[in-house]
Structures are given as C-alpha cells and as structure tokens.
Amino acid sequence: MPAVPTTSRSRTPAGVFPANPGQAGMIIAAFTGLLYLTGAADMVLGGALSREGIRPRQLDGLDGVLWAPLLHAGWQHLVANTIPVLVLGFFVLANGVGQFLAVTATVWLVGGVGTWLTGTPGTVNLGASVLVLGWLMFLLCRGFFSDRTGQIVLAVVLFAFWGGMLWRVLPGHIAISWQGHLFGALGGLLAGWLVARADRPVRTSVS
User: Fold this and answer.
1) How many CB atoms lie within 10 A of CB 32?
2) DSSP symbols for 17-38
3) H-type helices in 45-177, by residue range?
C-alpha cells in the first residue's frame, strides 16, 4: 500500500498564558524576590557583590557570567528591571518550568559570554536587563517562527509596550552595557528558533 505522509505532535501545543498562572506567578515572583535579596545583601556588604559582575576578557571576570543577571548597580537599576522581569518572565513560563529554564539558560549564557568577549575592558557588567532583552526577543520571535496566531498577537502587544527597549542593543551611553543587551537579545532569538523548531509537526508515514 502507498505510504501517506501525515503530521503529529509529540508535545502539547504551545500556549500564550501559563496553564497554571498561580504557579507561574509564584515562580517569577520568587525569582524577583531573589534579585531584591541579592540587592539587600550587596548593600549590607558595601557593594562587594556588585563588583562580581562580568569583567570583559579577564579570566578572573569570567565567573561573572554566572552572577551578573542577579546583580544590580543600586536600587534604581533594580527597580527599573522589576516590572519587565515580572511580566516577561510570566509569559516565558507559558509552556512550563522546563522550557522557562532552557530559554533562560540560553539567554543567560549567550548574553554573558558575548559580553565577556566583546565588552569594554576595565568595566563591570551586571543586571537583569540581559534577561529582559532576551525574554522579550524570545516572545517576539517565537510566534512568527512557529506561526501561531495567539503568540503572534502577544508579540505585537509586547512590542507596542516594550519594543523601544530593543534600541538598547545599539552603542549609546557609556555607562550602559549595550553588548549585554545585544547578546541577551541574540540568546532570546536563538531560544525562540530552537523552541519553534522542536514544536513543529513531525512527519510520519502510514502504510
């Protein structure tokens, strides 16, 4: 008999909102709380933690890749990142904690290593904005890669609110690590492509 190609999915169709919004809210709130605890500890320690960010092209600054997104240059810096972290992180949790961790790890590593390789020597780079730009780019491109209407609508809404943040990937103010923003966004782009690729229909043959 002839083989008839069909399509099937091995995973639950990707959504826009978390299936368990309460759990997703608690997870991203806990992560945000960790940022504030780190900020409080840094204040008590006289700014010692904020000196442990990424120091470009210095071997003793490479471990900053692990810590930089958790550290901030003062409360104003942290407060500015709080709402984007809460909102974007919540939507990244739409398809479960596993995907959230995978996307965040991709953004974290690509953003951190890219900053270490290309950042301005003699500077310390830190802040959750690398995650913010990465999560935003992930949410913007994921729907277009996967061609899902709900995710495309979400992308349009998020772009209307926070699309202006994408200008941060360009060189600008000397005190702003545009390299971290650029590579964080590239990490989100990569994560969006990988997630959409894994979620595409799998062709099978039925005889």
Assistant:
1) 18
2) S-SSHHHHHHHHHHHHHHHHHH
3) 64-67, 75-92, 97-118, 129-146, 149-162
Q: What is the rounded CA–CA span in Å between residue 135 and residue 43?
A: 28
Q: Please return the burial class of 155, using the count of CB atoms within 10 Å of its CB with bins 0-12, 13-18 and 19+.
A: buried
What whole-number distance in Å separates Cα of residue 87 and Cα of residue 3?
Answer: 47
pTM of the model: 0.86
- Whose tokens are 């997870």? That residue is 27
Collapsed DSSP state (helix, strand, coil) of residue 14:
coil
Buried b (16+ CB within 10 A) or exposed e, 187-200: bbbbbbebbbeebe
Rounded CA-CA distance 170/179 in Å is 8
What is the distance between the alpha carbons of residues 130 and 136, in angstroms, rounded to a whole number?
10
pLDDT tens-digit map of 154-200: 888 898 888 888 888 888 766 678 899 999 999 999 999 999 887 76
